[in-house]
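Incident log, entry 3
Record: Sortase (142 residues)
Problem: checksum mismatch between cached and fresh output.
Input:
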Amino acid sequence: MITGQGEQTFSVLGLRYAGDPAPATLGAGKSRLILESARGPAYVPSGVVRVDAELVSETKPAGKRQTTFATLPLQDKELATDTTTVWALVFALQFLLVIELAAVWAFRRVGLRKTWIVFLPVVTVGGLFVADQLVRLLPNLL
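Fresh output:
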């Protein structure tokens, strides 16, 4: 692995799942790498899997540690979702509803061909806006 301190070599200790005990605490001058990923079917994660690896190359000097698991914001922890933008999804759905109502009105007023030409790109943009907001609510390990 290439880090801010240079190239490092790690040896995999094993896999851990939620609830499994963590490896023993490291002594001075040692380092560990933990890789996290989701487990379960695609787009519907059901848990977390961790790969623990221990540094086997020479330890390089490091600066002050920037983050720890305890100091991570909630939205950066595994399987977390950021619900602070739910309001944007509400507005996106309202926008899509207004577009659909306008398309129905235009269909009755000017006919199918003109309505199709005007509203196809507008409905596509509205649908992409809604999809974008929905994806933001998915768990962060996808």
